[in-house]
Each structure stands twice: as C-alpha cells, then as structure tokens.
Amino acid sequence: MSESVSFGYQEVSPEEKTERVGAVFSSVAKKYDIMNDAMSGGMHRLWKDRFVRRIKPQPGEAILDVAGGTGDIAFRMAERGADVTVSDINQDMLDVGIERAMERGLDGFVWSCQNAEELSFPSRTFDAYTIAFGIRNVTHREKALAEAYRVLKHGGRFFCLEFSTTEWPGFKEAYDVYSHKLVPQLGQAIAGDADSYRYLIESIRRFPTMPEFEAMIRDAGFVRTKVEPIMGGLVAIHSGWKI
C-alpha cells in the first residue's frame, strides 16, 4: 500500500496533497486577509496579537516565521525589533506579503520560498520559530517539526498558532454548522472560491487534538511543551523549547 495523507476529508498521495494545497493558497492569496476578517469577525487579529505576546520577540533576535506569506505575524514581531525571515511554500502568498510590506514602508525582512519539511537554512540559526495557521496544511507534520528543531539554536523556542476543536458545550455545535455551511459561501462571495475554503475547514477537522499535537511536538525533541487554548480550544497556542 502506498502512503496516503488527508486533504480535507479525502485521502490522497503526499505529492497530490502538496500540489493541491499549493493551488488552494495560490487561489486565495489576494483575498486571504479579507477572508480572515470575514470568517472570524476580525478576531484573528486578537489571536495573532496574543500569539506574539507569548513569543516575546526581542530586539535583534533572529526569528523564522514559517507559512507566514502575507506577513501578519512577521510585521508584529518586527515592531518589537526582531529580525524576521518569512518563509512560505507558496510564492503567491509571499508576493502578497512583500506588497503589503512595501505599502507600509516596512523593510528589513528576508522573504524566502521554502518547504517547511525541507528548510534550506543552516542548523542552529534562529532564536525562535513561529508558524500560524500553517502546520495543518503541511503534508508531513513530523518532518516540519523536526526541521523546526534543527534550525533553532539551543535555548530556542517554538510557537505554533493553529485551529483546534473547541470544548465549549453548545458553541462547538454552532461553530460546526457555521464553518461547514457558511464559510464556503463566504469564500465564494468574497474570493470567488468556495472549494478552497471548504478544504480549509475540513483540514481543521482532520487536525490532531491539542494533546495529540503536543505529543508530536515533544516527539520532535522539544521540552517544556505547553498548550494554551483560546475560546475553549477553537484556537490554540502550542509552544516548546530546544534545550
């Protein structure tokens, strides 16, 4: 049996998943941030603010922001003086981030088209590794986590912001209806693409639970791992240290 991986609710080959995820993000790149506002009622901005507060970027620190194409996390960390390298497997997403940085008069970023599973950076390069709403789209998450561990300096920290499964009674059921029924309609109305947003919602449902993903982070070698649920686990901040 050849290996298969999940693409939403479908099982496909790893190569097909990588190709199809790339097509999804190429399709939604220019409307990605507008759709984030529409889908979350703007709350993604608060989640990202909280995420960066937990990272505590310091002036002069070298931070790698993976799957950070449009720059949302990178811009916040640069405001605190960090030297940020933004990597994304999708050049269309990076192009949006570069354009946004130019519009804001921001410079000093390194923009690099990279596969999270096979980073080209030398080992022990970065003080922190961040990835927000990207790890669930990686074909082999364990490879991405191993790469995160490799490129971090000793004493470096790993932070991941990702959707999970809310444990709030009542809210979970309401969110399931909203996400499966209304989000694809929003995607069609705003981005002209219902299918890509249907996949993005399905990918959340197929992502490991908070304890399962924390175990994956530990298996990659990280210690002092922690999970911080937001809205009962609708979103979670995962962290760990390379000691």
Written account of the structure:
The chain is α/β, with parallel strands linked by helices. The protein has one domain (5-241): Rossmann fold, CATH 3.40.50. The protein has helices spanning 14-28, 32-40, 43-55, 72-78, 91-103, 141-151, 171-191, 194-205, 210-219; strands at residues 5-7, 10-12, 62-66, 83-88, 110-113, 126-132, 152-163, 223-230, 235-241. The chain has a seven-stranded mixed beta sheet, with helices on both faces. Strands 1-2 form a two-stranded antiparallel ribbon. The protein is globular, with a radius of gyration of 17 Å.
Please outline the helices and strands:
Elements: E1 5-7, E2 10-12, H1 14-28, H2 32-40, H3 43-55, E3 62-66, H4 72-78, E4 83-88, H5 91-103, E5 110-113, E6 126-132, H6 141-151, E7 152-163, H7 171-191, H8 194-205, H9 210-219, E8 223-230, E9 235-241
Parallel strand pairs: 3-4, 3-6, 4-5, 6-7
Antiparallel strand pairs: 1-2, 7-9, 8-9
The dominant shape is: globular
CATH hierarchy: architecture: 3-Layer(aba) Sandwich
CATH superfamily: Vaccinia Virus protein VP39
- What fold name goes in the CATH topology slot? Rossmann fold
Mean pLDDT: 89
Termini separation comes to 38 Å
Task: Characterize the largest beta sheet: strand count, sense, and whether it forms a barrel.
Answer: 7 strands, mixed
Quaternary status: single chain
Give me the count of strands: 9
Helix content: 40-55%
Number of domains: 1
Q: Helix- and strand-based class? A: alpha/beta
| Unreliable sequence segments | none
Order of helices and strands: EEHHHEHEHEEHEHHHEE
Strand content is 15-25%
Count of DSSP H/I helices:
9
Strand ordering within the main sheet: 5-4-3-6-7-9-8
